[in-house]
Amino acid sequence: MSVESLKSALPDYAKDLKLNLGSLLNETILSDQQKLGTFLACAHAVGEPATLAAIEAEVSPKLSPEALKAAKAASAIMGMNNVYYRTVHLLKNDVYKTLPAKLRMNVIGAPGIEKADFELYSLGVSAVNGCGMCLDAHEAELRKHGMTSEQIQAAVRIGAVVNAVSRVMATESQGA
Hints:
There is one protein chain. With 176 residues, the protein is mainly α. It has a single domain, classed as Up-down Bundle (AhpD-like), CATH 1.20.1290. It contains 10 helices and no strands. 40% of the residues are buried.
């Protein structure tokens, strides 16, 4: 399945999602590696089969093997971190904020691609997973790498659209 066929599979009530998917894929504010890797990381984070297959088919030929691996790694590590850090943030007992996480996160320090690109992937996934603590941490790191507000916003927009498309596709596949 391609992104064009994914767009065609979206129902009429999701016309805005079709338009946003197309415009984000054509946006030039991010490099192709940044943009396409963020799409892939977010698609892996939501895991809806049709959306994931379409985005993988679209981006895989255009990304290096290292960027493909990093996008999947960002989804995997943020799947863990977003739950852990969101929970620490939500708990009223502040003692948890003082305890070391004791979770392996080596890929964040050595993602195999440019650090800023991996941070964008992680930011997009953190937006999908709704972890404010992680969003703040990745946004701050992206700022250190000279990323603009518009570039950072683009990663969040990608996460939002991929998430929404996947929700519609999941609902429609159940005949709702």
